[in-house]
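hey all, quick one before standup. I had two proteins in the batch that finished overnight and I want to keep them in one place so we stop losing track of which output belongs to which input. First protein below, input sequence then structure tokens straight from the run.
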Amino acid sequence: MSIATMRRSGHRLLGRVLRRSGASRLVRSSPPIADLGLIGDRATAAVITTGGEICWYCPGRFDAPSLLGSLIDPDAGGEWSILLAGAEPAGRRYIGQSAVLETTLRHPAGMLVITDWMPLADCVAHGSICRSLGPAPAAFSLVLRPRPDGGRRIPLLRLDETGAAIIDHHFRLQASHPILIRDGVVRIDVPQGEQSWAVLDELRSGVTADQAALADWLEATLAGWRKLAMRSPYDGAFADPVQDSLRAVRLLTDDRTGAIMAAITTSLPEVMGGKRNYDYRFSWLRDSGMMIRALVRLEPDHEQALQYLGFVASLLDTGYQSPLDPVSAAGGERVPKQVKLPVAGYRDSRPAITGNLAAHQLQLGSLAQFVLAAREIYAARDERPHWTVVSRTADFLVDNWQQKGSGIWEEATLRHYTSSLVSASCALDGIAPYTDTAEQATRYRRAALGLRQFVSRRCLSRDGIYVVHPGSRSVDISAALFPVWGYVPACDTMMANSIALLERQAGSGGGLFNRHLQNSRAQRLEGAFLVGTFWLAHYRIARGELERAQVLIEQGIGYATDLGLFSEEVDTGSGLLLGNLPLGLAHGSLLSAVADYDVAMRQRG
């Protein structure tokens, strides 16, 4: 099979093709972002291609160093492949509303069905990967090439007395068929006609895997995902995309802490072959706050929203000083310093990194999004859980809104960004009814009024346009949310004029829009920001323009993968997906817009 054929079929070997005499290298490329699927256990996740290859896996937690990382370094990163010569991808699906992924490969002799999942069973360690494969249409091999510490080294490999492969005295591979080790690679050969399975877990778990155990773990996992799905009985407009997005948000959630990650991956490029590559495996106040707004509307028990609020409250116990960092690690730790990884990068997009510089920025809008999320929870439940952290954050906004910050897009240039000021004003106005005293409420409302006066004086152009910051002549896509946050009616003339200019300046066709960046070169090169499509749809809903909103929602959904996952951006020239995946902000924005759309449609009758 030629290299070109292997790439077309989804069997991107990304490094080595094993031969009986040893291993030889092939030139390989990372899979298209649209080909990526996910499994997870709400503690970490793994990324799987349409050909059944696991190309990204961080054991134990989302931001751990990868054990399999060929996604961002095809040669050195490591992967878990299925080598079935002559096979091609024939489709994949999640089983029901679970995150159990079923992938089918078509071979001239028949189909091979692969079921991948991370168990939710209590007896299995977090981050364990289970693979169950149906009868083999022809002989094939499962090939695991682990590369710990983000691909920086070849691990120690040995077989224990049971025949399991031990990786670095820390991980273990158990399988239905004999395991072979050679040249830093673990291989399982499966004869034609036989079913097979394999489990990768932590050695310390001590759990013995066999066919019966896998069946039990699969049933427990499906039952666990069914229980999660019951939180949202939604059956309204766009029901299937809504359920896909709810699954994505649940996959992004660390159930141990309540943190919601921005994405599963790091360093998938916003500009192909460029330097705009970031680590999104952390929890942003901005992104999570916007997701919580949707979850409050779609999950009547508010369990995940309350859990997230508890996560943010727990940050006060880690020694944080006011204000909260805009970004936190999954366990509540501070985000580590940004470090360049010595890897090739996704399709030569370098540098690939871990950590994130945004954690040390002043982002007033992110703090405001947290307070807005708390307001939504308080309004829905008529109680004030974790009021201490909410009030401290609001107090910080009152005392510091005059400071210049990095804005919603984490700019290096500090300014009075309009979207930050608007969201802070809405947050203080919105949380004022829940204060302990009338004096505190008055203080919040007075600051909110001061913010409004500043915006009216400095952030409106002579033509009555909400510009990006004082002195700018442009409108950012975040302005579409001003009516959604409650700052101004959607039918307001200045709002309408701002959106009209936004559509002229930032529209990319196909319902796509660009965000406004201070770096003009980055502005020209990066793709359209998919979230903007749903934000503008939300604006149209607020105006009562439901038909226009429906078109935008449909256009945005059209950029999802076959599994309903959204990336960060879309290349408007090629249509290729760009950026990290799945982008929680995109899924949350769809959910929020659809929730309000469905209500508006029902009210219309």
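OK second protein, same deal, sequence then tokens:
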Amino acid sequence: MKRLIIFVVVITIGTYINSYAQVPTKVLSKNQAFEKYPKFEISQKNSRIIKLPKFDIASFLEEDEAIKGLDVPFRFGKGFDVDYSLQDGYWENTTDGRVWSLVVESDGAYSINFIFNELFLPPKGELYIYNDDGSMVYGPVTNKQNLTKGLFLTDLVQGDKVTLHIFEPSNFKEKTRLRINRIVHAYKNMYSGYSTGPGTAEACHNNIDCYPNWGDESDGIALILLSSGTEWCTGGMVNNTANDYTPNILTAFHCIDVSYPYGSLSSTEISNAESWMFKFGFRYNECGGMNYWATTFNGANYLSGWVETDFALLEMNESPVGNDNIAYLGWDNRDNTPTSGIGIHHPSGDYMKISFENNSFSTSTWGPGGLTDGHWLINFDDGVVEHGSSGSPIFNQDGRIVGQLHGNFNYNEAEDYCDQPRAEYGRFDFSWNGNNTNATQLAHWLDPNSTGASTTNLLRSPSLTVPDVICYSGTTVSIQNAPNVTITWGGISVSYPYGNTGTSVTVRASSSSTSNNGTVTASFTVNNIPYTITHPVWVGTPSFTWDYVNSDTELSPFEYGFAYP
């Protein structure tokens, strides 16, 4: 007789200045969230409901139409400034802790998202946000996301009624802190393509998933939620000459420079940019498909920017090392004119798109008094760009970044985007030295050891291949996309009988009687930056059965089934 043992595994990442701390957004079948996370039913039954006031959506749409051609971020929502804390929700005791919940409803909203100005979760505490029909779940947010400064921005959760759900383990009672200072009602549908076909952008775009030859490059593209929680830009994560996995994001200066006087950044604008949310993988998972995966990271450190080429460079607070779905993009800082190229972007905050230029680039000067020939001028042969595409990279014929999108200075508001293939990208080669200061150039940050290199190649994040059960008989584990340095293996309740260095080693349970949770780790150092990738495992023969996700563990949210005699 066999019994089915269901247990849950997540890849969690260890050291890189800050811990690797991605938060997934999961799209499920209707009601599936309640099947996967039974404790959500506690929230469903007992939550307090807060309803947001109605507002004049038509006036917002009129404002958006009036600024459609300007180099400003794409707005999708109305933000309500609020002040809600744990006292405004409802606590329910459970056998292993307690659950807090709060329902927020905003009639007619396509989605709802939140900004927290206080967030502290104890070890093994988790926060989720899910929609009313159980088809979308954001989370878990864990103590790895605890705020030390700035704001925490959540992803958008589809629907006009969502629930915030916190699990607090019994041994950390009353340690959780949460304060909500903004709730955003999306009056534009950021998930229209998920259920009805084309997304929010115009119909002449090309879905990136239909062009697998550009799949690696697409893995470095981020949809950026600005600190208002209501606006989008696009950016790309760029490699450096040290190949050391520093998570630098290249985007548009005007995505930060949102307040008068324009042309220079205030301390407030920089502080706001350092609270951005970066969303990778917001695309369909197959050509013509509807499902998608997405992973978000919060917070960054502003490094440099220059209004003349409209570039800005930030370093994310959280490292994606260990996530094999994310890549660091290569670049070319030479002044060679590309013979063709492509742009990958999120027009109007839509699922990822790709646009093609089949001919040599031209140059342009952005507006009167702009830097002469400081931009690459593109007339796309297939696809266009829109609001929300700002900051997205343009790649040359070799697949290397040569600029980031500023906009179209000659935009004609009387024409649709699809009739205007013109686009202007701030030139990477001009931005390289910028205005000859660290604060206005790319060189200091992307060539940290002053090698003088003129190009870098795309670099994929290292990741582990590890089975979910480690037995005493032993098995092979390996690291993919490994750097050319020593890899040292370790972990909890495991041993390495034939040595613990190399890209592939044998691991086994530390003893024949071991039967508990453990970890497999791979550690390495690149350019004096230490990294540790951790994979939770079960060590030995499982001796228990889980039939649901247990929030008292940090093992979530991917399920696997195993049958044992």
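Flagging for whoever picks this up: The chain has three domains: 31-188, 195-459, 466-564. The first helix runs from residue 32 to 36.
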